[in-house]
Design brief:
Blueprint lengths: L1 H96 L1
Keywords: Signal
Organism: Sphingopyxis alaskensis (strain DSM 13593 / LMG 18877 / RB2256)
Protein name: Entericidin EcnAB
């Protein structure tokens, strides 16, 4: 009877060891899969950040061009207004001399 109990205990210990090994393998596979998922997420975030930075730079460039165009147009308007003032002043001075 004693041998049967010892043999049963040994069989149980071996099955627990095998089960534990399977559990460890499954845990290792899960950890590796999680690591791959984290790596893929990191790569996607880096790519998204690079795309956002490029879009921001392009938008800033477009905004700079728009500001430059507005400044140039304002400069042209001031120049035209200055010419008109000079023309009207010359007319007024000519009228005063008559």
């Amino acid at each position: 009877m004693r041998k049967i109990i010892i043999a049963s205990m040994a069989a149980a210990a071996f099955s627990l060891a095998a089960c534990s090994e399977q559990t460890q393998d499954a845990a290792a596979d899960t950890a590796a899969s999680a690591g791959e998922d984290v790596e893929a997420a990191g790569e996607a975030m880096a790519e998204g950040a690079a795309d956002a930075a490029a879009a921001t730079a392009e938008a800033a460039d477009d905004a700079g061009n728009a500001v430059e165009g507005t400044v140039n147009a304002a400069g042209d308007a001031v120049e035209a207004a200055g010419d008109k003032v000079a023309e009207e002043t010359a007319k007024a001075e000519a009228n005063d001399k008559q």
